[in-house]
Amino acid sequence: MHTSSFSYNLSRPYPYRWFTPVAVVGGIIATVLFSAVNLATNGYQLKTIYTTNPNGTLTQSYWFTNAPWAWSAKLRPTCEAQNLSPGTEYFTTNLGLSYRLERVSKTDPDTNAIQSYPALAYLNNTLENCQVENIIIYLKRADQSAPPDSAWWSWDDSSASALVNCTVQTGSGLVDASFSTSYKQGPRDYNYLIQTNTTRLSSLWWGTRLMNLYWNGLLTAMAVTIYNETDYTPRWDKGQITFQPNMTNDAKSLDLLGITYFFLPEDGKLQNYAFALPKLYNDLVYSATLMEGFGFAKAFYSLLLADLGQAKLPNFLLDPDLLQYLLAAPDDPNRSGEDAWLVPKEDCQQCPSYSELCPPNKTCPNDVGVVPANESYNAFKDTMGPLGTFNATMFSQYVCSIPQKKDTNTMLLSVVLADLVFLSALWSLFQLVTSWLLRRSDPNADACERCLGEAVPLADLDNRYPEASAPITNKGLTLTRPSSTSIFDGESTRSLLR
Residue 212 is inside which H or E element, if any? Predict the structure, then answer.
């Protein structure tokens, strides 16, 4: 007989009643558990996506990333930070103004030394503690028309800018980020905001309307202002007004914003002479311009903070009373009182641009349907959402990796193969433990019965060795079996039967 190099093991049934049910039930339970674990570890893979909300992506919870299903963090969502570079334009998640990043710096708390960085590693961090540093209005004549017959478009080359500082929490701690933004619009051009949603962020909608109202009034004031000096009236050619926040919480005070300014006439006799007066309206020839600039600055200041997600007060766009106050302008003699001249007049085409508003979601061609500014809040409030703002981050796209289920066939194959490996290991371990318990009670439990040479009752030989039940005839002799009560060695009996 040929003998193979490989061999097989002899086996015998376990003598425990509990072994079969434990093996079957335990195997089913183990299969379910192993399938869940293997599905968590082998049924998903990472997929690269682009998102504008990495915070929501990173905080999203998946059942298969937590114990006991998985102990590896390889399937947890991850996102890469964006490098925001100075000189690049961004806008916030409130979709308002466009901002240019001017500087990124950090102050050493021990030495107060300021260190600037070439970029900001940014991962959708909330803008905090934003402060408006200044608002500057640049006045420049656009044509050669003579006052007082000129209109606002005579100063259409004018513009405004603002500088804002915010703190941003990064992996290396708090850093300071400086942003600048600019403004230059026509009478009813509100496209300098990404969007003006009247339901979600009605404050931004009101901010654009207020800024345009006062900007149009400012340019109109410059167009009709006459500089009197002795016997002639030269025109104004240029001017600049700078506003800086003061340390006061009284939104209706003239000290809310500090002011410095200068105006240059065409003859050049008035040199670059700067003024810093405690009150704006004091019968100067440019007082009307200063008051309109002050109203514009308050609206600009409020819009900046609302767009940057700063809910602190005072803010004319977050408080209904302050909003109505700025719309009515009771302390502005240009718009209120007997001498007010920036009010609607008949046959005045440019008047509505600085004194009336078109209702939300309407165009008002030829000024049909416009509402006086001081009546507009009560007229529009029922069709608009509440005033307010939301925490703001710089709007950007981020590269993230998130778990995604594999193809069904691939996933099933991966789970089945992994289940077989685990079940095989579990079965081997279960047999090992059970065999150890069996050997403790019976040292010969793992040996076959016929190999032990153990005594076997003859009564059992009929079943074990049926060939021995018939009489054996040899050379005319008949052998008879001993009584069933006798006990022979099993191996001896086999020799006799041969």
Answer: helix 202-224
